[in-house]
Description:
6 helices, signal
Amino acid sequence: MKIFFLLSVFVRGQYAPTDFPDTTTGDSSDISCWHCDAVNMTECDNIGAMKPCLGENQVCMIEVRKREGELEQICMGCKSRRACLDNKKQNSKGKWKNHQCRPEAWWKRAPSVCRQCCNDSDNCARDFVLINDGVGPLLASEWNEDLII
């Protein structure tokens, strides 16, 4: 019913196409970030792309998932500072044994998801993950460092 109403109003000429927000444009920030969602850095480099951050997305986010100590997924891209830092807080929430971020190669008891935020260069996310041959830092303390300037 809602779609029919909007369509009938549009057809009657009450709204011009310029009345609808354009979601393809936005103010670009001073930073660009590498964007990818891949199983490893080789695939990330092959399918990813550098994109300017738009609107409130002012930092580069990094998320690395491991299962039984083995890399499973890498995700990078632009994100708002607040959302990125909120996700990063999940790295070490709860008791030590329950932390989500367990980057150590020996940790095989449960899945690990580690998140980080950076904005010191366009390549900060890629540079961070390329540590240790593309699996990222192996210490939780490095995932918890403040990399936002």
